[in-house]
Structure prediction request, 349 residues.
Amino acid sequence: MNILRTAARGFACAIFMGSLVAFQLHAWSATSGSLSEVTFASYSPLSSNAEMARRLLSPLKNARLQKILAGGARLSDQAIDLAREKFALYVPPRAPPGGYGLIVFVPPWDVARLPPGWGPVLDQYGMIFVTAARSGNDQNGLARREPLALLAEANVALRYRLDPARITIAGFSGGSREALRLALGYPDVFRGAILNAGSDPIGNATLPLPPRDLFARFQETTHLVFLTGDQDIRNITFDAASQHALRDWCVFHVDRRDTMGGGHDAIGGAALSRALDILAAPLDADTAQIASCRAAIDADKNAKLADVQSLIVAGRRDEARKLLTVIDAHYGGLAAPGIAAMSKALESP
Prediction:
């Protein structure tokens, strides 16, 4: 079990012997223009433990998890028992002609609530808001916060007509770090991210890159907006490191707006409106810039994988394993086929 915790991290909470219990659909409703407490009952394949492992874990960590499961351990299909969960849902009184937008909010607190000043802005922009209870900083990301956000989006999408171009993941403080992680792993779900006073560099053991097809989509279609109080020096520093890493990884649809006079606080209505205006603007994709940047990354990645192969051929297997671990953390899913091949070679006699 210790190995399982290392390989699957938050997935340990979802291990059990037996099959997944099926839950009946529970009726629920939300009053337009007001905040309602709701329950959901529909599961999504995108929130399954296997799919989250594929998207959010590095290739080596996912491979270790699969090896453990092949040895007889059981992983539930879903980490969350929706029958036990509560969500806060806000629905504007009028649906836009093109469908509602949606903000899935990951909080640092455990109470499901609407941040002050957001209601009138949500009405103005035709944005539904949803957030989960018991999804604060003291909760595990893979076991709770991330699947709760994915299930919130999936259930709202089943019940309301949404504009896919206006589905946004947002968060504050530690919730903003989770929002970035979900934006990176699920660019086919979230087209924008509002990152309020919390971010991390991508491309490391903490925030590995997803498989190549998903990362290409993230580079091309996801728009990130950083909003941090100008007095929140610690998180401004974190934002700068995160933005630098994004540029290094060919992610150029990034905007930063400091909130004047703000400390470590959740943004109000004016800043939310500014963020939604930024996200509504068409993306200016420089395909030549992205192609050139990707080519440089691929060349560096391929050279490092060739170094691992040379170490294996020379019989220096311990050195090869160490370098492969470094490549796994840095390149993540971008190097998945090469990592799998090298890992298999290192397992052979």
In short: The beta strands are 35-38, 87-90, 100-106, 127-132, 162-172, 192-196, 223-229, 254-259. The chain is about 45% helix and 15% strand.
